[in-house]
Hints:
By secondary structure, the chain is α+β, with helices and mostly antiparallel strands.
Amino acid sequence: MTVRYLLDTTNCIYIINFRNNTMKATISLDNAVLEQLLAYTQAKTVKESIAKAIEEYIRFKQRQELLSCRGSVEIENNWQQLRDLERPS
């Protein structure tokens, strides 16, 4: 099943195609930004470089979420007691 949406924004026209948990998008990008992206990701194709950039951004946001929890969890230093409990008698 294919569902298509046409979204017209100020700079880009997106055509999104949902099929088998994938999404296709046609976008307009600045050449200078795209060249930088290709250089930084060292990808062979534009598609691969954009996918890498999106994956890295997701990992970055996930790390930010984890770091925001810093100090909110109290961990006991009882690893030796737990190890002793796991040993067979």
